[in-house]
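Lab channel / #folding
Pinned by the channel admin:
"Please post every new chain as: sequence first, then the structure tokens as a reply. Keep commentary short and put observations after the output so the thread stays searchable."

First post following the new format, from NK:
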Amino acid sequence: MRAVVAALVLLGSITASFLTGLLVQVPDHGPGEQAQQSIQVTAPVERRVVDSRTAFAGSVVAGSEQALSTIPSGVPAVVTRRTVEVGDVVRPGSLVGAVSGRPVFAVPGPLALYRDLRTEDEGDDVSSLQRALRGTGADVEVTGWVDWRTTAAVTELFVDNGFPAPTTAAPDPVESPPADPDPAEPMSSSAPEVRQPPVVRPPAPLIPLASFVALATAEATVTSALPLGATVTAEAPLVRVRTSPNVVSFRADAVSAATLTDGQEVSIQADTRQLAGTISAIGEFVEASDGKAPGRDVTVVSADPAFAGLSPGLSVTVLPQAPHEESLAVPTVALRQDAEGTFVLVPADAEAGAEQPEPRRVPVTVDYSGNGWTAIAGDVLAPGSEVILQ
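Reply from TO:
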């Protein structure tokens, strides 16, 4: 009996709860009211420089290098004097070292020297050496034959750098002919024959082939130099120099390349560093190759000392210098479009009287965009005013 009573009580409670639910209703908020109750996210209008530049991905490319070296014949090619260090600048007339006791000088090229030269030797190689010596500042005329000015210039170059003047090997003494008898004295068959002492000729000036190497540019930077006592070989030259600086190379598509000009200033971003650069060359259009899209290869140089320290192969970003000035700007996500054009929404004035004021529509004219901001024309918005973000 108790079980029946308990079941009746439980059934009554359930029925009462159901009837109560039918009588009580939660107020229905329409879509418009729910939208009005959503939180508005706004951002201020600013006067700022909008960076609309196109970023180009490039890399550092090593400059050209040249070996400055000679290997003398007949003796081991050993470095006997080291005169330059990595980072030194080599110019025409610079002593770049000594091999087997003989100095090696850099002279401006081209140099067609192929033999050791002696006084009165003639040829095109003599003319090329004379032009090279003039490039070092020597007082030499281009005559095509080895004259005293030429040998004097070479001697001065050697002596000024602490080396003896180059000469040929001393010739053997030459026996002088017997002296003619004095006609005033009577002839005597028993008189001894008078002989003159041997004639010793001084060594003649020499211009050694192994002492001159042609420098491809007016100046170059040393990138390596063999240590004292090392052996010079074709694979291990006395000195290696960089004849052109490192550059940055990137490929721009046809549309972007049309906005670039030779001589245009750019910014090079390498890691956390930002360096000034200049476009030095814009190549012809090329098809896709080596994983690169079709376009034009652009070369950038930089006079910034820090640029020389960038390792070849380092990835960098190149940005043309910003041509724009400060302007009125809004976050790009604040822009909206409809059939009438581009506009932004400005929060309505809460003091206007409406309980739920509608945002105000403000038409805008877009100038350009970049990095999340858009420059707008005119003064339709005041700096510091708020716009609603989407």
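NK: The domain at 56-63+244-320 is CATH 2.40.30.170 (Elongation Factor Tu (Ef-tu); domain 3).
TO: also worth noting, The chain has five helices and 25 strands.
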